[in-house]
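User: quick one, sequence for these tokens?
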């Protein structure tokens, strides 16, 4: 007989930025643990089905996994409609996003099944926000998948995004894994080079993997940019990295 395997997955509430209650999708293995935790930061298309499936994937691999809805304050409806409203309003403010992410981290650390270690994972805009959260402190590992606008020109900055995340690199307090497609236009290969140089300059522990034949979002099996070979290799490297840094 195989060992028993099971999980629970549900919508819950966490305390986000300024103590706001926000929704989050939470999945965990059944059993006493202890388990490491991961906060999953959704991409610009929103808090969608792919992120729920990814949250359950992390739970299947033995993680307490939670994905907060960073668009909670922008209304309800289909992820596409809410995401369009967020884009029209200039995106989510960086300090608000980091507050929501840190609230989700604290939620995981308060669980009786935790081993005390928590990582953060994000793709697209979520990769950028994962980088910001890693620089804000408190996480034990950071996974940035093709996060754009970590390197920013002055004309890309705004009231909601006043500082390029790369400028916070000195404060990065956790090892970081980066997965990038060489055909991506945001971030470009030049952006990834600049980020790698900043990490080297500040003596940070990092691991980057760059994939030929892949562009933005190559993990997304439900979109034309999916690249199965590169995605499978990326997931393998991702779980190996987290096992190294989050295992008790």
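Assistant:
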């Amino acid at each position: 007989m195989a060992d028993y395997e099971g999980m629970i997955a549900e919508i819950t509430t966490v305390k986000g930025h300024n103590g706001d209650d926000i929704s989050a999708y939470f999945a965990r293995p059944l059993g006493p643990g202890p388990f490491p935790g991961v906060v999953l930061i959704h991409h610009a298309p929103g808090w969608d089905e792919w992120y729920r499936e990814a949250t359950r994937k992390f739970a299947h691999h033995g993680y307490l996994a939670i994905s907060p809805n960073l668009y909670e304050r922008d209304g309800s409806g289909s992820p596409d409609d809410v995401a369009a409203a967020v884009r029209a309003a200039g995106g989510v403010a960086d300090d608000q996003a980091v507050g929501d992410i840190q609230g989700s981290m604290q939620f995981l650390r308060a669980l009786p099944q935790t081993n005390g270690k928590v990582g953060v994972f994000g793709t697209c805009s979520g990769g950028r926000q994962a980088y910001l959260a890693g620089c804000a402190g408190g996480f034990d590992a950071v996974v940035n998948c093709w996060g754009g606008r970590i390197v920013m020109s002055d004309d890309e900055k705004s009231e909601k995004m006043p500082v390029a995340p790369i400028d916070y690199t000195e404060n990065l307090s956790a090892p970081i894994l980066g997965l990038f497609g060489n055909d991506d236009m945001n971030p470009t290969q030049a952006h990834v080079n600049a980020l790698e140089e900043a990490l080297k300059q500040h003596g940070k522990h990092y691991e980057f993997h760059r994939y030929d034949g892949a562009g933005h979002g190559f993990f997304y099996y439900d979109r034309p940019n999916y690249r199965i070979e590169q995605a499978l290799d990326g997931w393998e490297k991702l779980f190996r990295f987290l096992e190294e840094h989050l295992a008790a």
